[in-house]
C-alpha cells in the first residue's frame, strides 16, 4: 500500500476556502502533506497548509501546472478548469472526484439530464441556452408560471436560483444559459452525503433536514437526524446511493432532495464534495465528513457514518448593515452552553450574508438540540467593529 | 471583551511538539492567530502555525524576545526559561499557566514540597542535591531499599524515574538533584485533568485509568472512564481539584495519582498543560482538552467535560529495531474498525519507543472499546522503511 502518512506523498486541493480549511484539520491529524491552490492570498487555507499556491482555478495553465506538482488531486469547490483536469488525468494523475463527474455536475442542465438518463427522480425541467429562449417558451405557453429558474452554472447557496411568478420576475433574470423547473410543493428539504472509494465501498450518512426560516426562505438549521419517518429516510438514502452509483462516484457526494407533499423523494441537486449539510459531523459523527473525504479519495476503508449524538448546525453569516473587520459579538455567551462549538472560518472581513463560520450543537435529544440551536442563533451576531 | 477570533490578537506558545500541533487544530477552528517557538525547524507545529520561530526554550533572551511579540503566552512543555517568563510577566504580559506555578512544577522536589505544604496526599519522600547525598542516606539507613528514585528535573514519560532495589541499581543512577520516594504498592494509576480560568471557574474531566503492560511496566492504554468505584473516582477528582485550587491554577492541570491497595489516593505528579492522558477527549468528550486549554487561558467559559462515549487511547511508539523514515504498517487495517481514529504527529523519523502518534477508540461500552484497543495495538506497527 502507498504510504500517505508522514511520507513524500503530496495531496493537491483546488480551492482554499472553509471546506479546505476543515479538510486541513484532518490532513494534519494524519500528517498528509497538503498543497492548496486558491485565487486569494487571504484564503482561509493560505497560512496553515503545507504549501500554498495563488492562482485562478478556472485558468487552464494554472490548474494544469498545479496538478503537475502533486501526487493526487482533489477539489473543495467544483468550479475549476475541467479541461486541465482531463489532460492531467490522461497523463496519469489520479483525480477524485473524477473530472467527467465534475463536468456533469458543474452545469445544472447536464446534472438534470443525467438524472433523467439514469431514472433518478427529479422535478420536470427544460433547458435554455439564453434568457431569450426562455422568454420565448413562456410566451408560447410551452411553460407556465410560476416555475423555478436556475442558472446553469456558478450557482451556490441559493444564488442563481429564483422563483419566477410573473413576467416582471422574468425581466429581472440575467441572460445566461439556464433551466426552468416545475415548482414542486415540498414538506421537507433533505440531504444525504454518500462516500464512495475506488474499491466501490460505499457508505451513506444519516438523512439531514434543512429547516427554513418561515419568512426569509433561508436555511436556518441543518438537523441530524432529520425529523422524518424511517421509511422516508430509507427512501432518501436509497435515492442518494443510486445517484452515487450512477456516477460510479469516487469521493463525497452531497445529494440534496425534496420530500414532496405526497412523500416522493426528488433530487434537487448534488455537490461533488464536502458540504455545509455535513458540518454537524465534525462533532456528532464517528467519522467527520472531512476525514471521510480523505478516506474515500485515498481508497482507504471508509469510516463509520453513524452519529454519537444528535447534531444541529447553524450558519454564521454576516449581519445586514455590517461591512468591515469582523467581530463575533456574544460568542462568550454561546460558549457557556454545553455541547456548543463555534467554527470560525478565518475571514477577516464581514459583509451582509457572507458565510463567516458555523456553530454545531450536539445533544442526546434532537428536540433539546433544536431549542439550544435557536438560542445560539438569537445570541451570536457577526458584525463589524 | 477582548476579541480573539479573526482579530489582531496573537497567542504565543512555547513548544511546537505534538501537544502544540493538536492545540493548533483548535486555534484554527476558532481562527486564533498562533505563534510558536521551538528549537527544531522540523517540529510538528512548524509548517502549520501562523508564525513559527526557531529557538531554545531554555534560553533567557530567546524566550524573552519571543514573549515580546505576542499578546498572551502559554506553553505546551514545562521545561522553559522561567526567569524570562517572570520578567515578561512583570512587564505586563499575561502568561498562563503562571510562571510561579511552572517554577514549582518544573522540579519534582519543589512539587513534592508543595503537596506536603498544602496537605495534599502524596508518598513520603526525601530530597537530595546529588547522588552522593542519596548514597550517604542509604548507607546511613536513613532510607531503606527498595525505593523510587526520581530526577528532580527534566523527567518525562517515565524517563528520570527508577525503582532502586539494590546497591547495584544505585550505581546506575546519574549524579543529579533527585528525590527518593517510598515505594507504594498500588492497584491503579489514575489521572484527572482540571481546567481553571482566571475567573476561577473550574471543571474536572472524568477520572482515567492508565492500564500497564503486565510485564513491561509501560502504560499501554488510557481508559476513560476508569473502571473503578464511583466513591474512588469522586475522591480522585476532589484530590485533583484541591491541587489546582492550591496553586490557584490557570490553564489545564493534569494530576496523576495512585490508588493504593487500601484505596487511598496519593498524588504522583502533575503536568501544567494538556496531557497524554487527555488525548481520548478529542473524540470522546464534548470539549477536547485542547479546546479547554484555550478556553481556560483566554478566560472564556469552560466547556462541558462529560464524555459522549467511552474512550481509550493507545500510544503509537516506534518499534524496537527500527530507526529511520517512518511507515505506519497496517494502518489501513485499523481504519476498517468502527470508532478508531489514528493521530499521526508528523515526525518523519522513527526510533525505538519514540512517541509517533496515538490511536483513539470510542465505543458506547468501555469493555468493548478495551477489546478493540487491544486489537489496534496488536495490528498497527510503527516501523522504518
From TrEMBL, chains A, B:
The record's listing under HAMAP family reads: PurK
According to its UniProt record, the EC number is: 6.3.4.18
Q: Among its keywords, does the record have Nucleotide-binding?
A: yes
**Gene3D superfamilies, sorted:** 3.40.50.20, ATP-grasp fold, A domain, ATP-grasp fold, B domain
As for family, the record states:
Belongs to the PurK/PurT family.
Which source organism? Pseudotenacibaculum haliotis
Q: In which pathway does it act?
A: Purine metabolism; IMP biosynthesis via de novo pathway; 5-amino-1-(5-phospho-D-ribosyl)imidazole-4-carboxylate from 5-amino-1-(5-phospho-D-ribosyl)imidazole (N5-CAIR route): step 1/2
Domain ATP-grasp spans what residues? 112-298
SUPFAM superfamilies, per database record: Glutathione synthetase ATP-binding domain-like, PreATP-grasp domain, Rudiment single hybrid motif
Report a single Gene Ontology molecular function: 5-(carboxyamino)imidazole ribonucleotide synthase activity
> Cross-referenced InterPro entries, in alphabetical order?
ATP-grasp, ATP-grasp_carboxylate-amine, ATP_grasp_subdomain_1, PreATP-grasp_dom_sf, PurK, PurK_C, PurT/PurK_preATP-grasp, Rudment_hybrid_motif
Quickly give the catalysed reaction: 5-amino-1-(5-phospho-beta-D-ribosyl)imidazole + hydrogencarbonate + ATP = 5-carboxyamino-1-(5-phospho-D-ribosyl)imidazole + ADP + phosphate + 2 H(+)
The UniProt annotation places ATP binding at 108, 150, 181-184, 189, 268-269
Keywords of this entry? ATP-binding, Ligase, Nucleotide-binding, Purine biosynthesis
Name the Pfam families on file.
ATP-grasp, PurK_C, RS_preATP-grasp-like
Name the UniProt record assigns to this protein: N5-carboxyaminoimidazole ribonucleotide synthase
Assembly, per entry? Homodimer.
Q: In the UniProt record, what gene is named as encoding this protein?
A: purK
Sum up the protein's function in the record's words.
Answer: Catalyzes the ATP-dependent conversion of 5-aminoimidazole ribonucleotide (AIR) and HCO(3)- to N5-carboxyaminoimidazole ribonucleotide (N5-CAIR).
Q: What domain of life does the UniProt record list for this protein's source?
A: Bacteria
